[in-house]
Amino acid sequence: MQNWFNLHVQNITVLGWGGDTGFGTALWETLYMTLGSALIGGILGLAFGLSLVLTAPKGLNPHPRLFKLLDLLVSIGRAIPFIIMVVVISPLTQLITHTTIGPTAALIPLAFGIFPFFARQVQVVLLSIDSGKIEAANSYGATHFDIIWDVYLREGRAELIRISTVSLISLVGLTAMAGVVGAGGLGTTAIVTGYQRFQPDVMWLATLMLLTLILIIQFIGDWLAKHLQH
Are the C-beta atoms of residues 91 and 84 closer than 8 Å to each other? Predict the structure, then answer.
């Protein structure tokens, strides 16, 4: 038993939970990157998604030129692969964080990588809301803010939770990819420490931790969406 343990999971024991490269540190870095970039990307995505709906030809405040510009920016953002995004915006990352390595530096490309995806999903959710409810609110003299808050966001809250869950899960995957280029987290542990250094036990445990994190996010998202559904 001791021989089997030493053969198969010795590297896990050596790496440990704490320290600069331990599993606990890697988990914390992954959570930090995921939640931090989700906050930034979520705000940008919601703002862009709402603006796309409001400035559309049949929106509350039609503005064809602004709509086309926002639509183009979202489409371009979605088309750029994440690894290329990291490189392309590295000067901006350096300007904001004064470094291009580590979890804090990763927040910038992660936010820019997720917000176009989230913005398009927000647009789809809000456009699916019954137009009759919007017309009814207009007929009662509701302001644009009232319609945005009480109709768009309140009626679409369950679906917004669902797309937020999908976006968070995508972000976990992006943090793993960012780990390959020096961001840290479980991605770095799995690929750099586990795979590249021929430590499969480390790689599999880091992968299992990522999978567990994704399942937890999915469970919480489904629970919230179910309880917010009309």
Answer: no
Q: What is the dihedral of CA 177, 182, 183, 185, to 10 degrees?
A: 80
Distance from C-alpha of 180 to C-alpha of 4, rounded to nearest angstrom:
30
Closest CA to 32 of 126, 89, 107: 107
Q: How many other CB atoms sit within 10 Å of the CB of residue 221?
A: 19
On whether the CB atoms of residues 205 and 192 are closer than 8 A, the answer is: no
**Angle, CA of 67, 72 and 77, to the nearest 5°:** 130
CB 78 within 8 A of CB 116: yes
Q: Which of 169, 151, 150, 182 is nearest to 213 (CA)?
A: 169
Selection from 34, 6, 190 nearest residue 113 by Cα: 34
pLDDT in tens, 179-229: 766 788 888 888 888 878 788 888 999 999 999 999 999 999 999 998 887
Integer angstrom CA distances of residue 124 from 105, 108, 128: 31, 25, 6
